[in-house]
Amino acid sequence: MKIIIQQPGPRSGADIDMNADGTFVDPPAPTVAERVLRAAIVAAVLAAGLAIAMLALWFALILIPVAIGAALVAWAAWRWRVWRG
């Protein structure tokens, strides 16, 4: 059984944008709006990464007193067992 997957629509093949002398045409420079959009996307990604890092740090700092409390309870239980003999 042979399965052939094709893109819908007319096939035009690969387009190579080339000058008559054989050099490639440079792509157009990005517009101001495109540059602003790229900068906004980069800023949003950096802000999201910073927010996730700060949330992880906050969670780790919240766990410090919990770990200290658990250590104190474990120490008290151990001392109780030692005292009881």
What would you note in describing this structure?
There is one protein chain. The protein has a domain at 31-85. It has 85 residues and is mainly alpha-helical. It has one helix spanning 32-84. The radius of gyration is 32 Å and the shape is elongated.
Record keyword descriptors for this entry:
single chain; 1 helix
User: Regions with pLDDT < 50 over 5+ consecutive residues?
Assistant: none
Assign an overall shape. elongated
Instruction: Compute the number of helices.
Output: 1
In percent terms, what proportion of residues is strand?
under 5%
Distance between the termini: 78 Å
List the helices and strands and how they pair.
Blueprint: H1 32-84
Summarize the structure.
The chain is mainly alpha-helical and 85 residues long. The protein contains one helix and no strands.
